[in-house]
């Protein structure tokens, strides 16, 4: 498993882990060849666009098999008050000129875009502290890591009198509770859309990924029979 090294205390994993960038797409290709890898699984966050592009390039140039594990996007349901925007700066702009109580739930990377609209009050949630802190007077920070519950998210939104949430369309269950809570409480969501994903065979679930792996490398091959 390869981690970028952004999280200060990453969760323990039951497989060998390496940490840090490879030095670009060509360097990732060299790493894969040198390590004799048979398969590359891109299981990164859907908004980690550079590493996904690098992974697709490395698989293509080395001829190593590749699959992407991509959580399906969330879709707007009845009662959702979404405004779909292309990126975080567009989300901040869409908040408008009047001061609002904003829950910035996009993580610490990109939080600095809020500085473009200092009239709002921001509640920023991230796994690790935002460094340097935002150059804003009206900002509060919460350090927390999902999964989050609907009850917990409703309490948070009420306590901080939030009237709009800025979120990435990450998909998956772990961070969906804020979207459900917004629906229940009638709160607007600036939903940052995903960029188009690279052309790699993609699956939605771990089970589907395991099935593809079994197909590519049948169990008899894995046992070396
Ligand atoms: N973006 C998000 O919203 C978000 C949210 C939660 C978790 N994450 C996770 O945090 C990590 C970094 O995200 P990001 O948005 O900064 O990525 P990114 O913009 O796609 O990647 C930037 C650079 O970081 C290095 N890198 C990224 N993921 C790596 C990995 N798994 N192993 C080794 N190097 C990696 C690569 O450096 P080199 O070019 O030097 O190889 C890559 O070019 C990803 O693994 C992602 O899954 C991201």
Overall description:
- This protein is α/β, with parallel strands linked by helices and 225 residues long.
- It has helices at residues 25-35, 49-62, 88-94, 150-159, 177-185, 206-216, 219-222; strands spanning 2-3, 18-19, 39-42, 65-69, 81-85, 101-104, 121-126, 139-143, 164-168, 188-192, 202-203.
- It folds into 2 domains: 2-70 and 197-221; 81-192, Rossmann fold (3-Layer(aba) Sandwich), CATH 3.40.50.
- 29% of the residues lie in helices and 20% in strands.
- The chain has a 6-stranded parallel sheet with strand order 5-10-9-6-7-8. The protein has a 3-stranded parallel sheet with strand order 3-4-11. It has a two-stranded parallel sheet with strand order 1-2.
- α1 crosses α2 and α4 crosses α5 (177-185).
- The mean pLDDT is 95.
- Bound molecules: NADP nicotinamide-adenine-dinucleotide phosphate (NAP).
- NADP nicotinamide-adenine-dinucleotide phosphate is lined by residues 2-4, 6, 21-24, 28, 44-45, 47-51, 54, 107, 109, 168.
- The site of NADP nicotinamide-adenine-dinucleotide phosphate has 20 residues, from β1 and α2.
Integer average pLDDT: 95
CATH topology annotation of the largest domain: Rossmann fold
CATH architecture of the largest domain: 3-Layer(aba) Sandwich
Unreliable runs: none
